Every structure is written in C-alpha cells, then in structure tokens.
Amino acid sequence: MFFRMLRGAFFRQKGKMLMIAFTIMLGASLATAMLNVMFDVGDKVNQELKAYGANITVKPKNSSIIEEMYDIDESDVKSAHLKEDELGNIKTIFWAFNIVDYTPFIDTRVRIGEDEAKLVGTWFNHHMELATGETLDTGIANLRTWWDLTEGNWLDEQKQGSENEAMVGKLLAEKENLRIGSTITVSTDNGSRQLRVIGIYDAGGDEDDYIYTTLPAAQQLADCSGLISSIEVSALTTPDNELSRKAAKNGPESLSVTDYETWYCTAYVSSICYQIQEVITNSVAAPVRQVAESEGAIMDKTQLLMILITIFSLIGSALGISNLVTASVMERSNEIGLMKAIGAKDSSVLGVVLTEIMLTAVVGGVAGYFAGYGFAQIIGQSVFGSEIEMKLMVVPIVAVLITAVTLAGSLPAIRMLLRLRPAEVLHGR
Amino acid sequence: MSLLEIKGVSKIYGSLKALDNVSLTVDTGEWVAIMGPSGSGKSTMMNIIGCMDKASLGEVLLDDVDISKVSSKKLTEIRRDKIGLIFQQFHLVNYLTAVENVMLAQYYHSMPDEKEALEALERVGLADRAKHLPSQLSGGEQQRVCIARALINHPEIILADEPTGNLDEANENIVLDLFRQLHNEGTTLIVVTHDPEVAEVAQRTIILDHGKLVKEVMNENFNSQNAAANNSGSQENGISDSGSKKSAETTEENPEAKKEKAEDNGRKADAMKARGKTRKGSKSKK
User: Is residue B102 part of a domain?
Assistant: First the structure.
C-alpha cells in the first residue's frame, strides 16, 4: 500500500512533484557547478598565474647563504654552481607532475667593444627525454611570457647553429645600435664569441640590458662547462596553510611523522622546494614569495567566492523547497487529516511525505548534478578557456548537501504536518 | 448494553461553550441521529465521540474507556480500531483509486487486502468502479466508497457527518439503505444531520441547540419502517440488501418504545460480537 501511495502521489501529482524536483535540480546544479569549479579552480588559476613566471628559484647553497648575509647579486658569487646533468632529476620528484616548466641559468659579464654587459645562458625551447620515458619541452620562452618581442623571434635552440645566436634587451640594442641580423662580438677572459641577434625584447626591467644566449655558449664564455648558477621552476602549488607555514618556518624536521607525511604529500610550495633540494646536489630551493603568496591569496579568495555562491544557492534552494513542500502539505491537509482520522500515526504520515520528498530530491539531485556539470563546463570555457575536470568527490558532497537542504527545507512542512489535527481540517474546527 | 456513555460533557473554546453539559447514552447496535441548527454543537460532539477532539469537561466512555482522559496516541488507536468515519465532503484521496481508498483504511488498521476491499465495494454496489479515481465517480459513488472505507475494518461504531448533505435524493436513498443494512447487522450508527428525513429513519433522534441537548425523540415505528424498506426497492438501488426511504412518525420517547429498542439492540449486539470475533481471528494487527 505504501508503494501504491507513492506511485499515486508521483504519477497522479506529476506537476507538483516536478516543480519540487525542478527546484532541487536548480540547487543541485548550482552546487555541482560551483563545487566542480572550486575544486578545479586551483589548477586553473595556477595555470593562469604561470604567466607571471616561476614561483621557485633554485640556487647553490653557498651562493644562497652569501646572498642572504650580504645582500649581493648572485653573479658576484663565482665559486658556487649547480650541476647541469642533475636538471632532469627535477622531473623525478614526488610532485614531478606539478612541475610545469623550468630552466637553468648561467650568467657572466662580457665585453662588447668598450662596453660591458651581462650575458645569460639558458634554455629557450629545450627538449628533454626523461628517464621516465616522458618528454618535456621547456625553457625561458615559457617562463617569460610577458616579454614583448619588439623585433625578430625567440631563439630556437633546436635549430642548427643556434649556439651562435642571441636575443638582446631593448635598451642594450639601442645602446649598441643592434638590429636583427647584427653580429655582436662578446668576450671574456676565457675567450670570445660572435653572436647573431635574432630577437630584441622589451622585458620592462633590468633584463633589457642583458644578452640571452644558449646555455653551452654561456658556459664556454664563463668557463663553467656542465655547470649552472640557478634554476627557475614553475610549479602548480597548493595554497599555504598552518601546516606548510610551520614546516617553512621551523623546517620539516619539526613536524610529527603524520604531519610530515601530510606535508610531503601535499603540493605546498615548501614541500616541492624540499623535494627539489633532495634531487639537486648542494642546492637551496626557495619560493618566490610574491608569486607564491599572490597565488595563495587569489586562490583563497576565488575558493571563498565559490563556497559563498554554493551556500547562497543552497539557501535559495532550501527556501524554494520549503515553500513548495509547505504549500504541498497545506494543499494536502485534507488528505493528511483523513489519514490521521482513519488511524495513521504521525510517523506513518511523515514516512509517506518524507519518502515522496526524498525520492523527488533524488530525481532532482541527479538531474541537477548533470546540469551542474554542464554549467561548470560553460564557466570553464568562458572564464578559463578550458574544460573543468569532473571531480568524483563532488558526487557525495552534493548528495549530502541536497539531502540536508531538502530535509531543512521540509522542516516547516513537517512541523505543520505534526500539528495538523484531523478535526480541524475535516470539519473546519 | 451501552457502547457510548457521555456524562456532563462540555467543550469550551474561549468564552464559547460549543457543548454545554451534555449527557447521552448510546447502546450497542443502536441507530442515533443528532440534529440541530448550525452552531448547535453537532460536529463538536461528533469530533469528541470520534476521538478527534477532547471534551473540556465531563466523561466520554467508549466501550468502557474514558476517551476524555487518554493520550492523543491512544485516541488514534481507538479511532483506528473502533470507529468508522463518514464525511459530508467524502474526503477521498484523489490520487488513489476507489479500491485503494478502501485499502488505505486497512493499511493503517492492520494490513491491506485487496480482495476484502473489493468485497466492501461490491457491498456498496461499486464493484465495477473499483479502479476509478474519485474524480471519475459521482458524488453518490464517492460517498459509497467512503462508506466502504468506514466499514472495511468492521468498526464498533460508525459516525456519519451529514452523509447525505451533498447527495441527490436517489443517492440519499442508497446511502440510507446501506445504513439500514449496517444497522440490521448490529453496527452502532451515529448520524449527524440537518435533514429531518434522514433523522426520521433512525431509531432515536437527539436534538442539540446552543450546545445543549434539548430533546430526545424515539421513532416508534422504526421496526416496521425498517422491515418495509427491506422488502421494497432493493433491486432498484443496485445493492444486495436495501430498502427505500420512508417517512417516519416520531414521538417523544416512552417506556414501551424504550423496552422494544433495548430488545432489538440486544439481539444486534450479539450478532455484532460474533462478527467481531470472526474478524479478529482472521487478521493480525499491524
């Protein structure tokens, strides 16, 4: 009989039930969309922030200490270097997948005729065959996306003869009267080299006075074969929290075993730095605080915004459900009064009404989940220009939220139902 | 043997006395009509007897249980086990078919039995309308479904509030015929009505005014009317054991009439007890 009543209620009161299901669907779709975006927004925002450059710098330990102590430029620290052949190790750390780009640097002072300038050797579009079988194309072209190429092109190090090419900053080009195709002779105590200018860039900073060339060319001029002076790493990170701040302040040794494991297995910028240090000999990896903190702040605010939208949409949904269910109970007061008059206990009537509502919630919730996933894709495409990944953990969260919202929304109706006296509705007393 | 005993019952809403010190006894198997103008306290009395409301003052003994003192939960149980309710507005669940509406009462009483529900509908002449929704039935048919629902659990007392108030004359006759059948089977009937013609077919009529019991009238010719009704018009209404409504002469209650009523009710009480035992043996409680 219970199922006959449910069947009757569903199939013969389709309109009402569809209305309630539609309201629940709206709430569920917004919650699903917002939660999916919220869980994916970290990666998306991180990707966006990669445009602002690396968020981790790796330097030789000695250089780092001297820099900190005396606040001097790293180029003055000649003796400290990292090994070029360890660069591939960065893609073997626990969070290797989160390392998006990285590039090594070696710099030296060079003479151009009577003048002096800083020459930097780096990767431009370096192709790597990793030990894991993966390949990686990385370099400064990915880490200096804000450089404005005023003339020419990026240096293509895959091309034959690229070790004799260079890119020069706008100010240096003006000072030395350089154009695309010009040849500059750069010399150090270790020898000289002729470099053909193939690109002139506007970096909007000190780099406008630099010459950028390939790593082997710079190593030859600096007499540092197989050595590098620093690495810039761009990694996807999780915003800092109490645990990561504690680890960064007191060192990971200060953490308990459980906290250490949590910290190590979370993509905090500090744990990624720690893991890089483990694979690059004699190195100190440090976050670029401004970038890391901006990322954290933007992500925290974006996530807070998403949570607030989710909460408000669920409150709206609860109010809608509350109104509809209360109206439905009021409309059915005669029927409920009759059930009580012929001997139904409050719990029996509640059972029928709540089962109806919860089944409606299931229908609305499932429809809402898929609609919400669609909304998430619209948001992903229009805001980030890419797909929002479907997070499985959203399913139980939405299920719990919809159950809670439906029950909360049904509370006024349940109260009314329990107070309803058959004599009042059947005889108007 | 009295099934219902009301002793000095009052129902007070603020300063209004809907019932004012009413006392009344209804014997097992008796057919009582309650009449009175609007606001006289008829529905209040029905609500109190039907365990849907409690008296403010006084005692209401139903089958020797004082229902004015029991909890709401207990009242629900008594209502479920002992009382069958018939309403002027029918109050059928609009998304359940006729047979499902009858089964609903079984569901809350013990367990639903479609066969038995169909038999109840057959008894009120609606076997062929069992799968129809209330919206597909006429007013008279809906009231008969309501009667079948009230009967299905074999209650000790049937309370009908203006059962013919929304019916035309033909349907009114059908309903009254059904009441005669129930009476003949020993069911106690209490019918609240505005209609003197409906009241006249009862054994006894109670008249309320401003919450007070002002008059009690016995129908001296009840037995002969009943017999005449049973002999005529049963096929006419499509019900297996029916009669037609007759005008009734009523007089003030006298000792001879009381004696005759008591004997008649005694016979019906025995019949009803036997029927109740059979049912309890065949059904398990929920």
Answer: yes
Residue A41 has pLDDT above 80, yes or no: no
The residue range of the domain holding B115 is 26-46+70-282
Q: What is the ipTM of this complex?
A: 0.75
Predicted pLDDT at B15:
83
Question: What average pLDDT does range A168-188 have in this prediction?
Answer: 91
Using the beta-carbon criterion (under 8 Å), do A341 and B52 form an inter-chain contact?
A: yes
Contact B112 A1 (CB under 8 A): yes
User: Do the Cβ atoms of A321 and A20 come closer than 8 Å?
Assistant: yes
* Torsion on CA atoms A7, A12, A15, A16, rounded to nearest 10: -60
B197 and chain A in contact, CB less than 8 A: no
Q: Domain residue spans in chain A? A: 2-46+296-427, 55-287
| B99: Cβ contacts below 8 Å, ≥ 6 apart | B114, B117, B118, B121, B130, B131
Contact between A383 and A371 under an 8 Å Cβ cutoff? The reply is: no
Quickly count: other Cβ atoms within 10 Å of residue A174's Cβ.
Answer: 12
B19: in domain:
no
Q: Which helix (H) or strand (E) holds B20?
A: strand B16-27
Window from A235-244, A275-284, B264-273 with minimum mean pLDDT: B264-273
B21 within a domain of the structure (yes/no):
no
Count the Cβ atoms, other than its own, within 10 Å of residue A156. Answer: 14
Distances (CA, A) of A51 to A40, A102, A234, A238, B184: 18, 13, 10, 17, 94
Picking from B14, B6, B23, B15, the residue whose alpha carbon sits closest to that of residue B212 is B23
- Select from B96, B109, B112 the Cβ nearest to the Cβ of A343: B109
Interface of A with B (CB under 8 A): 1-2, 4-5, 8-9, 11-13, 334-335, 337-345, 348, 421-423, 426-427, 429
Residue of B nearest to A427 (CA): B43
> B77 vs A12: CB contact, 8 Å cut-off?
no
A71: left (phi over 0), alpha (psi -120 to 50) or beta: left
- Minimal CA separation from A417 to chain B, in Å: 15
From chain A, pick out residues whose CB is under 8 angstroms from the CB of B93.
5, 8, 335, 338-339
Q: Does the predicted TM-score (pTM) go above 0.80?
A: no
pLDDT at res. B282: 41
Q: Mutual orientation of helices B98-109 and B72-82 as an angle, nearest 10°?
A: 130
User: CB-based contacts of A427: which residues, under 8 Å, 6+ apart?
Assistant: B43, B46, B47, B52, B161
Find the residue in B nearest to A348 (Cα).
Answer: B108
Task: Report the chain B residue with the minimal C-alpha distance to residue A343.
Answer: B80
What CATH number should be reported for the domain holding residue B193?
Answer: 3.40.50.300
Do the chains contact at A8 and B46, CB–CB below 8 Å?
no
Q: What domain count does chain B have?
A: 1
- Bridge partners for A201 per DSSP: A149, A169
Alpha carbon B211 to its chain centroid, in Å, reads: 21
Please give the Cα distance from A272 to A148 (Å, whole number).
Answer: 30
How far the first Cα of chain A sits from its last, in Å, is 30
pLDDT in tens, B245-274: 333 333 344 445 445 555 555 554 454 444
Nearest residue in chain B measured CA to CA from A428: B43
Q: Which of B47, B107, B112 sits opposite A423 (nearest CB)?
A: B47
B150 domain residue, yes or no: yes
pLDDT digits (tens, 9 = 90+) for A63-111: 655 555 555 554 544 567 899 888 888 888 888 888 888 999 999 999 9
Residue A115 neighbours by CB under 8 Å, 6+ apart = A175, A176
